[in-house]
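=== RUN LOG ===
request id: a7f3
mode: sequence -> structure
chains: 1
length: 303
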Amino acid sequence: MKFVKTKPVKKSNKPENNRLKYLLHKSIAKLEKQRSIEVLHASDMTKKDFCPARVAYMQEHEVEPHDEFISTSMRVTYDYGRFLEEAVVGYLGKATIGDWVCKRCNQLHTALGSKPSHCNLNIRPHKRDYDHGLKRCVSTDFTYSEPRWLDEETAISCGTDFFADLGGKPTLVELKSLKAPDFKTISRPRKEHLLRTNLYLHILKRSGTLEVNTDEAIVLYTCKGYGFADEFIANSDLKDTPFSPFKEFIVKREDNEEIDRIFADGLAIKKYLISHGPIPRKICSNKHCTQAKGCEVREICFA
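=== RESULT ===
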């Protein structure tokens, strides 16, 4: 009997493309368009890599920002935050204050109040509505819409997570989530959360609104887990276990150098675009630095 030698079959390093995890990653990870550079978002201006000159040149020359690759892990992290905000807004019920969108007619209720009991807005032409002889929407189903605020002097705007009715004028609440170990040890707002919330309070004040509390806000942290023993809950009259997945910290509106710098940057961008004022502040020393290599207007900036 003669045996024929065969070469061993090499195992492929490629993942099986019929695995659920493979299909999820394939669907989620992708290039996504960044939000418009025409709006000065306060949340962007608190970042260390924010460049006023880049924004000014991009607006002047109508340059769109590069698409950004969002990995699966990052997209799920973003969505977790959005889902969590929707949940907390629902938990608070009538204590949640803001704008509301009717899910039936898609119209916005901008009264900055608690969730309406029913829509009652004039409906748009729709065969089903006319069949029933309806002239106003009767829906009771709404979704929360983040109110936006604008400082007209600098054109800096912000979208706020939500407001809570704690007695008096509605109080701004900025919602953040933390892993269990970080949540257990946190005893004050993180620096970046403190800066951003303080900036939002300044924008509220500068917008001229009289509807909400512009003196202080709350940073609410939620635990990505069960939570921990909580003395406040344990000593309250609540019928609940003595644990909590929430920690809240008061943030007061204060002036400081970082706040002054942000508003100065916004004003410099506006003046440059409207009256050809001085070029706003650059963060790159030359066009070969790491930040400049990915910049959309590098050649214009260092021409």
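=== NOTES ===
Residues 30-96+146-301 form a domain with the Lambda Exonuclease; Chain A fold (CATH 3.90.320).
The mean pLDDT is 90.
=== END ===
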